[in-house]
């Protein structure tokens, strides 16, 4: 097994999903950072590396250091969308291994819900300065229809059904109903009929962009979080048991003539992460996979090797992704972006819930969970996206 | 008073990589690039060859026929123009010459749509630019 040289030692997930204009993203980041450092038994002065997805602006490595009042010697503002935090975890481990830092701080804060961003169905405006926008914006593609095109192709090639895709939504809601924070999130965001869902509920919900139904689409919340990653020396003295970073992989994917929409950049990033960790998919207890939409998870489960390409539909049938079922990893046990928390870039919550599971702190705790994968997908599945895979192990 | 009803978002004709493509649409030509050195089809348009480092890109004109690689039917959009168009079909079309482009399928209904359907480019004419849509053959 891989070297145990860097570990997640502190975590915090902002509990409010509707802040109603009372706080801003930078305040959310700072509040989460303080709580995550306290969780680790550390303080601001211990932080010597800062990671930020630069969604707040091009100088955010500086802005956030000043706001927090820290003087890091490693500053990394890799911004690759919702998977940025998996990239940050990978980079933090590398920097720690090189001896460049000992305590790395990752933070995220967003008020996407309060700002009333129509993330999913807004569509793009005209023209633009990038050649890609200039070739595509006339067509009125929405974010939902982008993912829907990937789902349509998956159905065409492999016979995947809406009922099979709905398994992702029902398993995730099953977990969400066990989490008081997730239930409160759904209440605050005015979900109708907050309860466990059936396959029939999902496939009879309103079509947003064929073939994706409302209950296959993530929420748009406010929120944020923080993760503290430390060297093995520091980790040994922290307040909570370390959750070791065992392997990482990074990749990109974009449209090519004749390319496939039924697989994602996880095809590249997954094997690298598993290989470095010396772990196979069948050993994984917890799969934290970016659930922007049902199809995102189904595609990535296949790409990571939990089942063969095209077999995902039949493989997810029967509920094996639930925390109390055997035959597969427990999927998104925090309730996911579908039913708990999606302020635009969900990647940090994948690390946080994986760490909770490996500490034994989840509300849908898998007995004896030892290995987890956190897989972030940034950008859009049906066109251009990034993938960050992190394999994590308990102490 | 000018008509203020929202219109389809149109390309920026001064964007450097794609200006030549959009100039071609005025003659109802779907232009794409191929490298004279390595034969790579480059799409979307850009200034360099992605297949070799001695690129020599030349413009070609597609016959405008292709197949639907995948599609979706947009039922909900908050965009000022597209909200008035729902439900509408977005699709990736593989032109016979190679380029895969994003467009709308017109002249049919969502129920008639299939992956693999043969389509032909049809031009929606605007003042300075024509937009390449596709309709079933
Ligand atoms: Zn070339």
What structural keywords apply?
heterodimer; A: 395 residues; alpha/beta; Peroxisomal Thiolase, Chain A, domain 1; 10-stranded mixed beta sheet; B: 137 residues; mainly beta; OB fold (Dihydrolipoamide Acetyltransferase, E2P); 2 domains; 3-stranded antiparallel beta sheet; 8 strands; 5% helix; binds zinc ion
Q: Any guess at the CATH architecture of the largest domain in chain B?
A: Beta Barrel
- What is the CATH topology of chain A? Peroxisomal Thiolase, Chain A, domain 1
- CATH architecture descriptor text of chain A: 3-Layer(aba) Sandwich
The protein's oligomeric status is: heterodimer
Question: What does this protein look like?
Answer:
The complex is a heterodimer of chains A (395) and B (137). Chain A is 35% helix and 18% strand. Chain A is built from 14 helices and twelve strands. Chain A has helices at 25-40, 60-68, 84-97, 131-136, 143-158, 162-176, 180-188, 199-203, 232-236, 266-277, 294-303, 312-316, 336-339, 347-359, and strands spanning 6-13, 49-51, 74-76, 103-110, 207-210, 212-213, 223-231, 243-253, 286-289, 330-331, 371-379, 385-393. In chain A, the strands form two sheets. Chain A has a ten-stranded mixed beta sheet, with helices on both faces. A two-stranded antiparallel ribbon of chain A has the order 5-6. In chain A, helix 6 crosses helix 11. Chain B has 137 residues and is mainly β. In chain B, the strands form two sheets. In chain B, strands 6-5-4-7-8 form a five-stranded antiparallel beta sheet, with no helix packed on it. Chain B has a three-stranded antiparallel beta sheet with strand order 2-1-3, covered by helices on one side. In chain B, a hairpin with a 4-residue loop joins strand 7 and strand 8. The mean pLDDT of chain B is 96. The chains are: A alpha/beta (395), B mainly beta (137). The interface between A and B is large, with 45 and 46 residues. Residues 35, 37-38, 40, 49, 51-52, 55 of chain B line the site of zinc ion.
């Amino acid at each position: 097994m891989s070297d145990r040289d860097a570990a997640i030692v502190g975590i915090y997930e902002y509990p409010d999903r509707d802040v109603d204009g009372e706080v801003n993203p930078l305040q959310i980041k700072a509040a989460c950072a303080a709580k995550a450092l306290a969780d680790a038994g550390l303080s601001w002065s211990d932080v010597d590396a800062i990671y930020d997805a630069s969604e707040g602006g091009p100088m955010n490595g500086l802005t956030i250091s000043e706001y927090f009042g820290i003087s890091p010697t490693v500053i990394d503002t890799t911004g690759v969308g919702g998977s940025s935090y998996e990239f940050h975890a990978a980079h933090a481990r590398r920097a720690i291994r090189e001896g460049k830092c000992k305590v790395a701080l990752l933070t995220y804060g967003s008020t996407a819900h309060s700002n009333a961003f129509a993330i999913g169905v807004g569509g793009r405006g005209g023209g633009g300065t990038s050649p890609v926008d200039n070739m595509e914006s006339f067509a009125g593609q929405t974010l939902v229809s982008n993912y829907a095109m990937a789902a349509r192709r998956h159905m065409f090639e492999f016979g995947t059904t809406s009922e099979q895709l709905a398994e992702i939504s029902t398993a995730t809601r099953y977990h969400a109903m066990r989490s008081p924070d997730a239930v409160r999130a759904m209440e605050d965001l005015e979900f109708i009929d907050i309860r466990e869902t059936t396959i029939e509920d999902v496939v009879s919900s309103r079509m947003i962009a064929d073939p994706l139904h409302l209950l296959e689409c993530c929420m748009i919340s406010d929120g944020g979080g923080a993760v503290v990653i430390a060297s093995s020396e520091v980790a040994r003295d922290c307040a909570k048991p370390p959750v070791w970073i065992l392997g990482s992989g990074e990749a990109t994917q974009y449209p090519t003539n004749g390319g496939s929409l039924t697989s994602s950049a996880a095809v590249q990033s997954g094997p690298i992460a598993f290989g470095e960790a010396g772990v196979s998919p069948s050993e994984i207890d917890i799969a934290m996979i970016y659930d922007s939409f049902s199809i995102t998870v189904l595609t990535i489960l296949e790409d990571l090797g939990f089942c063969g390409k095209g077999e995902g539909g039949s493989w997810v049938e029967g509920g094996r992704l639930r925390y109390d079922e055997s035959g597969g990893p427990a999927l998104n046990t925090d309730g996911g972006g579908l039913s708990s928390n999606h302020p635009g870039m969900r990647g940090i919550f994948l690390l946080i819930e994986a760490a909770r599971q490996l500490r034994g702190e989840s509300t849908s705790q898998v007995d004896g969970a030892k290995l987890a994968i956190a897989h972030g997908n940034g950008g859009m599945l049906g066109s251009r996206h990034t993938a960050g895979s992190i394999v994590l192990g308990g102490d | 008073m000018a008509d203020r009803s929202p219109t389809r978002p149109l390309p920026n004709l001064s964007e450097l990589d794609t200006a030549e493509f959009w100039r071609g649409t005025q003659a109802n030509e779907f232009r794409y690039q191929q490298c004279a050195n390595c034969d790579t089809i480059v799409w979307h348009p850009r200034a360099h060859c992605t297949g070799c480092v001695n690129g020599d890109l030349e413009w070609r004109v597609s016959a405008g026929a292709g197949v639907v690689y995948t599609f979706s039917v947009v039922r909900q959009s908050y965009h000022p123009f597209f909200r008035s168009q729902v439900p509408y079909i977005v699709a990736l079309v593989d032109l016979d010459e190679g380029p895969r482009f994003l467009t709308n399928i017109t002249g049919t209904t969502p129920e008639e749509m299939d992956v693999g359907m043969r389509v032909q480019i049809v031009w929606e004419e605007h003042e300075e630019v024509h937009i390449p849509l596709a309709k079933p053959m």
